[in-house]
Amino acid sequence: MGLFDFAKDIGSKLFTSDADAAKNITDHILSNNPGVENLSVIFKDGEATLIAESNTFEAAQIAVLMAGNVKGVTKVIPKFQINDVADDTEAEAKTEADIVAALEPANVEYYLIQSGDSLSKIAKKYYNNAAEYPRIFEANKEVIKDPDLIYPGQKIRIPLD
């Protein structure tokens, strides 16, 4: 499952009209800022375009998840400038297409929460150990506020390395 498509009728209800959406999504991301700067959000017809700078691809991934897990958002279009990249893969991501591809690395999988799921059940599936659920929670703490409160349709990151 990819990072950029989301369920429209699932998630936190942050706006009642498209006119409020961009400001409210911006405020939502900045309220628990994963590490993005100069954030600007454009919202139209269910698509949230995030324009921002970040020092890491992980911060950009989390910002995309934060925006996408908002009720009314069906797609997130990332337009990030990644600064101070640390490894060669990230350093090669210069064009917009490269950055979008780098936001879906091989060491992270995106998982759509299903009815009946718990973080421990998901940890058992991915790590063969239910007690590893804090690893998933830590990777998603900006998206999941309480490890016991996840909901069907919510998209989260599963670190694989």
What are the main properties of this structure?
three-stranded mixed sheet; 161 residues; 6 helices; two-stranded antiparallel sheet; alpha+beta; 2 domains
Mean pLDDT equals 90
H/E element order: HEEHEHHEHHE
Output the strand order for the largest sheet.
Answer: 1-2-3
How many discrete domains?
2
Low-confidence segments: none
Major sheet attributes: 3 strands, mixed
**What separation lies between the terminal Cα atoms?**
18 Å
Q: Portion of residues in helices?
A: 25-40%
Our Rg estimate from Cα atoms comes to 15 Å
Total number of helices = 6
Shape: globular
Kindly describe this structure:
- The chain has 161 residues and is of the alpha+beta class.
- It folds into two domains: 1-105, no CATH class; 107-161, Roll (Membrane-bound Lytic Murein Transglycosylase D, Chain A), CATH 3.10.350.10.
- Helices cover 34% and strands 22% of the residues.
- It has helices at 18-31, 57-68, 88-92, 96-102, 119-127, 133-139, and strands at residues 36-44, 47-54, 75-82, 108-112, 155-159.
- The strands form two sheets. A three-stranded mixed β-sheet has the order 1-2-3. A two-stranded antiparallel ribbon has the order 4-5.
- The chain is globular, with a radius of gyration of 15 Å.
- It starts with 17 loop residues before the first helix and ends with a strand.
- The mean pLDDT is 90.
